[in-house]
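Review box. Two proteins, two foldings.
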Amino acid sequence: MMIKFRLLIVCLCVNAVVFAQSNLFHKGDRVCFVGNSITSNGEFYHNIMLYYVTRFPDQPLTFFNCGISGDVCSGVLKRMDDDILVHNPTHAVIKLGMNDVNRSLYTLYPTKNADTLAKREEAIATYKLRLDSIINIFLSRGIKVILQKPTDYDQTGSLKAVNNYGVNDALKRCADYIQTLADKYKVPVVDYWTILHDINTQLQKKDSTATIIGPDRVHPGSAGHLVMAYQFLKTIKAPQLVSEIVVDTKKNQSKNAFITDFVNGKDGISFKVTEKALPFPTSEGQKQALELIPFVDDLSVEKLVVKNAGTTNELRIDTALIGTFTKEELAKGINLSLYPNTPQFKQALQVKEVLNKMWKAVSDLRTIEYVEFKFLSYYKGNKDNMPELKEYLDNLYKTKLSNTPYYKTQFDRYYIVKANQKQLLQDFDTFREDAYKVAQPVEHTFLLTTSY
């Protein structure tokens, strides 16, 4: 039975408690993510950017994808000026090693072949030397460096893909060296290798075919990329709270949120809230990761606390029914981030939709850079003559590359997107700006219909 509350109309036009949120990147920063195909895929840094846009909508920054499929340290050095420094970065986030160890030197079985063992050592020695050079180039220009240890190579799973056993041990050596460089230059380091390796080990204790890495043993899927984003954000001590909405007539304890128009009346409790941030919009494709890591608990807590509520309480936000909660649950606090039907979560999804359009433009731009850096660096013809370029690349594929269909796919895509390069660059800027516009704070009306 609904209790008729004593009418208490309070216009709480109050400011939120000062809420300092620490973060690595700030307004105006230009961040280049440098690496190979895992970076070119970009999903882990997409998650990081989505976090930043939804958490800090008043601090716009720009992330640049500087990943090239199959790249190694020497490739990064060659494209340093035209593909990375051209963006005038404030930060360089580096992840290399998966290709530098030269996976073709490893097979399913151990080897004692002296030549092969020597080549393995040479590959790692070259990696160390050139990675150090890359770091020095950035630091000498005042660009802040964040190092990332390589992702795990799944050499233990019962997968269909050929197993280059020993690659993951080589990557561990690379990871250890990266830690040495981080200590040497006093720069942050994100350890992907350990968290992915530990998760894989636990998964395969129960199921030898399970993997947090992709079926090809190299490229993580959506779940793996969310684990990577989690590790990155936790390493930089990204804040947990989206906001903390505390409904208490005696004092204001809210964080990163403003409460106004509080009414405690016969129809229940109502109030308006403007939050300065949005929850992180997780997706179905990330379900495996969400079962393995406490992403929401650690990085997306949108807490609602209501003091002295009734026995049961039906919560609506802007007329949308969110759920029914007990007095004890509300007093302790519920995490609204766990409810995808809230207007805030839906707004965050709208932000993601805009960013998806931006990332599609980026993917097309990376195809252009991939083909031009990998296959046209020494081309002597007219690069503006597409028929000539097409003839050259088609012939190159037929004579030297036909055993790798991926190249044909990239060439065919290049022929289509190259003509739109200027428009793609404009789209990148437009969609980035639009994402921040969509992420701006919106006032919502909360209604708690309460009974004892």
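Next protein.
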Amino acid sequence: MTSSYGRGARLLSVGIASTGVVTFAYFSVASYVLDDVDYKRISLLWSVLFVTVSVIYRPIEQLLSRTIAERRARGMDSGHPLRTPLILQASFAAVFVAAALALRRPLTDDVFDGDEALFGVLVAGVLFYAASYFARGWLTGHTWFGLYGGLVFLEASSRLLFALAVAVGIAHGQTAVALGMAAAPLVSLVVVPLAFRRRVPRAAAAPPAAGDDDLGLARGGRFALAVFAVMLAEQTLINAAVLTADATAADAAVAGFVFNALLIARAPLQLFQAIQGSLLPHLAGLPASGAGAEDFRRAIRVTLRAITAFAGAVALGLLLVGPWAMDLLFDVDFTYGRAGLALVAVGMGAHLAAGTLNQAALARDHAGAAAACWLAAAAAFVGWMLSPVIADELLRAEVGYAGATAGLCALLAVVYRRG
């Protein structure tokens, strides 16, 4: 099982890293084929779309992954409970559509500058991603990590094709570039039939226990809502500093400086989704397969050691060449402090460690306790950012992010020890 986890993490890391490169290419091409105003709208559309689908659909992905992996470890290779995840996924999508329609005018006028087509792409994209995230949870639950990596890579590649079509003159304008965001999740589903071809009949397993034919809406709903709260809190930790700086700073450019600094955390967090994608089904299957608690702890220990080494290397590098690297990467008339950048790296390490401990909590069915930890950390971070304790908004964000994630990690460590 440990080798399977390591192999799955490597496969997903390659897939998601490649996806990141292709996504960067999509925005790079879009910046060349669109003027500044249209490109800003595309960037805003992607930001709203990405945050929305991450918050409302990853709970179902995690629910499916955990449930299917646990059942497979007990020898149940078919008949996995899909009714409750489907109901919950449809409910999240319906709530989004209702909220989007209620806020249609503010979204269209204030975010997309009156462009109705972009609002339509947003709604269609969020709905289509419901199927994509459902497929992701189903694939990781079966430990088909190669297909998962292929799904996200195909999604990014098909999105890029829309921007390239505008670049070569096949299509024209902002709407054509934006349509890639809605079409990509549908195109990526072509990998799902390949998964069915991998299903090999096995020896008949023991029949499931009474009541095991479905998760139960109450139990599945509690898990999904808890993970929803986790995802909402995580987005708060990443985005609250930029929003509060934009609202409170005398210089509007400060929000951009804060955003650039926190990119140090954003990129590794996206890549770490690969580790999380393989870690949860691995941990959920260990107890069901008869593995001891030591195997569970070993998986967590190995992951935390790797995170510590990585975050330490990043922090040291930023202490040495951080200001020079930021000046090279961003064309802004501003000098970043070494200590502040290193603090962001420390916070990134704590954030990744918290994500690991969170997967352990989800695997042990402690989602509610984990959600309480995340919400407490997010609330503390927002309170810190709104306080005038440190006058410099950038330094306040750097100190606050490191402190909030360290506190979060400590709270989740308590939940982990109690497990």
